Amino acid sequence: MAEEDYGSFVDWDQMGEMAKSSGPTNVDCKDLKEFKQMARQGYWAKNHKLRAQVLEQLIKAIPCRTVTPDAAVYRDLMGSAATKKPSSAIPLPDFVDGSPVPHYCLKSEAVASVHRVISCVAGQFPDISYCPSLPAITALLLHFSADEAQCFEHVSRMLSCNEPSRKLLDQTYLAYESSSMTFGDLANKYCQAGHKLIVATAQDVMEVYVDWQRWVLGDLPFSHVARVLDVYLVEGYKVLFRVALALIKFYRKHKVGAQAGQAGQQEKQDTGEVRKDIQAFIKGIASTVTPEKLLEKAFSIRLFSRKEITLLQNANEKALQQKGITVKQKRGNVQLALNPDTFSSEIVSAKEMHDIWSWIPERFALCQPQLLFTTSTHGCSINRFYSHCEGYEPTLLLIRTTDGDVCGAFLSTDWEERKRGGNKLSFFGTGECFVFRLKPEIERYEWVVIRHPELASCKDQGLEDTAPSEGQDPVSLLQTERPAGDLSPFLSARHFKLNSRNTSMFMAGNFDSIIVGGGGDGNALYIDAELNHGRTASCSTFDNPPLCKENFIVGLLEVWGFQDTMAP
Fold it and tell me: What pTM does this model have?
């Protein structure tokens, strides 16, 4: 068999149609963009030997630290180890956290080879403290390796990548947990229907999302994960996020189809049962979704750039470090650290606050709501509003109108930031801000650039800090922007250049008013200095309809902060 050089560990009987090699026998391409398209389209996917050769070259091209263990190191260390120690006596290291070895169409004895390779990796990489994806990656690479030594070298190169932008595997609990939080943020923004389903069914959403890497590297059948590997080694870690988001989308479609005709809302289930249900769906996905459909769905999701995701992940990592979470530990429900028996708001119930909490960035999920200001206690004064809210970031604004409507906003930036504009009304904040309404129906409206990333691709020219012309509303003007530099448009604390000033008007305030959202017809929310009268309209920043009656009277206004439950 021509495949034997790269298939000595393969159980060809399990391979089915994939055992029949067809298609091209070589790849001649030097253009990276074209090569990416070839990977996505599966150019070498039908020829096992060619795929193995391409993967070998891709791994050899990974930039690695100077001293990286290779196949010769493995042969020196493990040459006679197999004869001295039964493979069944070689346990997987603790840092894989109990992750099993997927079979991936390997011979039964090949599982022992995976154990030997990982055992050697553990000895050569003492700095690895948490890497649950390693058994799956090792099994996958062994499938395309000539021998264990080659597999070891390939795994070592993936672990030794020294170019931060090309990180391939999480190797610490901090990195793994922050990746899970980042996935939760991405699901919340780019897979809202699927996220809503999980929020409605699972008691602890974050415990569901902690499995996201396992879904791709572990649960997917071999036919699908091999196609993911093709693209993953070309385009990097971001591919895993894309595929996992696509899996959530397909899972939701599966659940909606299964529940068609059943009345009533989703009921909460034990989180473990939801995790098992998702895992079972993904393991059996081949019956409904082809590898091509999976990748097509994954690459149809319009995510921010790799740089933006890296910055978001860094923010999540920093939040975990500040809370002392750097090693695996038992933790409670991080989706809402709230006791429904003691939580007290005059505007929302504990359940409604839980719904709002499912929308906030994951790095704040370890916090609990802290009431900072309420008109029922502190009075209707904008000065007192600022004095109670300054120094807190982020904050949650809740409004109940005299008509009984409830709406509000998640505001990412400290209100003290407004002072940078002097006496001028100027906008600040970040793309994590959003507005919402709870009654009469629940709906959230995010920054328009999340749904239309192309709006962030063109920079404004000549935006200047000018005084309003006669008759012009000062709210429609932006403050002079800082140079964009290395700041992320999504996480930057100030303005950043977009093709329209109207799409970056997040929050503003002075002693006359509080404003959220701008551009277009008006503001998403406008509250006067007495915190008594308000207006709402559609605006370009959030692309929202009016959140309640367009001119309303404030019945009650609350501002909530985020208290660190793990702080001393």
Answer: 0.74
